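Note to self: user wants both folds in one dump. Writing first protein now.
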Amino acid sequence: MSSLSARIWAVLWSALLSSLIAVFGSGIWILLIATNLSLTPAIPWSFPLMALVLWLMWQYLGGRWWPKSTSDARRACLRSFPISGSKLIWALIASVLSVIALMGFWIVLVELVGAGGNPTIPDYSRYPHILVILGLLTGSLVSPITEEAAFRGYAQVRLERVFPAAAAVFISSLLFAFWHGPTQGFVWSKLLFYFVVGLAFGATAYFTNSSLSAIPAHILGDVTFFFFIWPHDAVRPLVWRDGANLWFWVYLAQAVIFTILAIIAFRRLRQVTQDTHTDQGFLFKEN
């Protein structure tokens, strides 16, 4: 197979596998929570059941169970390798700083374009508060675990085999952005936002050689957006209509300052990776 054919094949397979994994995880959750809310809203049985589904999915994608002939390939694609020491610390710092920057970036985009909110969040006003909180918290686990396995695991690992690292992260981030299109809307500002999210988490996964590394920051981001950002998007001012108030500049400064800090942290993470390598023989190199 030629180099070009191999790369085209890798992109197609990455798109297919990541979509299947993401559809499975989110689809099961939508089915469970919808059934729970419609039939027995007073009994939150869907949440522990979804936790079990996530655990089983992660185990299978990581190489467990039948067929044994694909165990090694599945384990390599998920690359849920443990991280320790300074590499773990800098991965957490870099990814959390990225999330803080992205919070400001999202709000700035919403106030510039007007496209905000999350259409997948149903109207919870007629349900018990505890059910709403559990639903949002579970949703904040489903997306990170499913999407890190799909895009920073299966998709990006396959892409890294035939593309330079930067290109692999770029393509996996495009797949990640367009995956959100059908549910969040194919609005340029939202696609750009999710693409940048993919860059941050993709770089974290590459530097650490682990799909586990971005999960804590991904969970933090989802919890923050579900509870504190998306619910307020509908009442945010529009710069082109209302002008830029003080908070717009604060959020813009937040996006810029924390982006710079995140880049510094990623550079440090890269240096730590070069110095320590990993037990799997991973080494970052310029491409």
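First done. Writing the second protein, which came from a different request thread.
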Amino acid sequence: MTIRSLEPGYFDALYAADPDPWRFETSDYEDAKYRATLAALPAPHYRRGIEIGCSIGVLTERLAERCDTLLGVDIAPGALDAARRRCAALPHVRFEQAALPDHVPPGPFDLIMLSELLYYFAAPTMPRVAEAVHAMARPGNDIVLVHWLGPTPDYPLDGDAAVMAFLAAAPWAQLLNAERTTDYRLDVLRVT
């Protein structure tokens, strides 16, 4: 049996049932992970950033302080509506509905954030995802991967398998830092 990448309808149903299905706004886990993610960024500030899979914009709002311009991208319109409301006072932040690897926002972005995203893709799709990320970057740009390490029964991959598949498909990326907690892994890459 081939496991396929999750379809847009999966996320539409999640947000229709609950506007914050992963408790991004209230979870101690999410808050600690966001703080660790921002602390792990190699540069104090970025000219152009993109957060792929921005959801309702909780990390986007925090990441905005570190970017001159920031694009949040998500597949779910309901999540994007919430993200736009959350970041309405931040004129340098904009949002776009898109789904990798079929739609690649025009770069280059000197920071590409993929937080809690890669395990939604099936392993055979990962080379296309890596190619899409590479198309948005230039040498010297940073890519941050953050993924839950717990069970992911509804997803095609778990956190470790997703990151390993991405790294295998991205020989153009150098691993700068890899952190691991009991709950998540945080990998910082630089485009070579």
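Dump finished. Worth passing along: The radius of gyration is 15 Å.
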